[in-house]
Amino acid sequence: MKYAPIIGMVTFGSLILFFIVYKIRNIEPSSSNSSKSSKTYKKSISLDKLYDEAGGNDALSDGIMTSQIDLSTENNSCGFMVTYKGVKDRKVVCTRGCNDDEEDENSKFCNQFIYKPENASPLADTFLDQTYTRRRGNRNIEEATTTPDAAAAAAAAAAAAAAATPAAEAVSEEESDEGLPTWVWVTIIIISCAFLFFYACYKIKKFIKSLSS
């Protein structure tokens, strides 16, 4: 009981020190975070994934990628020039092995891979990136289903979403600034109350001993 005040002070001081260290470690400039984080790239990816990784499919992108594809087997021989430009422009042009002869089996085979609106071949998207084909499908659905009423409803929904975004960001910022988790504060309060109770008991016992003596 003699060292109870000292033990209590050390315990309380340790809690305060823990709180200070916690706050210091969680205060990091956003610039340092951004400088430390670096994007990693895969070592072995397809051409369409390479275009994605390089940011070619980012909004407002003016990127361009071209690739020459030559196919030669015992049965068929084809050549293609594939061009990705920005987000919406894709071309697959046959440079070898294609002609208008309907009886030419090699030409039939090669023509399947040409990308153009009138080509109904299920293989016409072979050399296209999945990001483009997915967005193209979404655009086709929107163009087919959009009416004046639907457009107005979509605009209203977009405006509501834009208005809700700042409020959501404000809430998330408030939540991020709350500091220590609740369980940490509860633990600190319980330990502090226990120390005060222990110290009060010690003083009462000491006072009773002084009266009896």
Give a nutshell description of this structure.
The protein has 213 residues and is an alpha+beta fold. Helix content is 56%, strand content 12%.
Structure characterization notes:
With 213 residues, the chain is α+β, with helices and mostly antiparallel strands. The protein has helices at 4-25, 30-36, 47-53, 105-111, 130-145, 148-176, 182-212, and strands spanning 64-72, 77-85, 89-96. It has a 3-stranded antiparallel beta sheet. Helix 1 (4-25) packs antiparallel against helix 7 (182-212). The longest helix is centred in the C-terminal third of the chain and has 31 residues, at 182-212. The radius of gyration is 35 Å and the shape is rod-shaped. The relative contact order is 0.09. The model has no long low-confidence stretch (mean pLDDT 74).
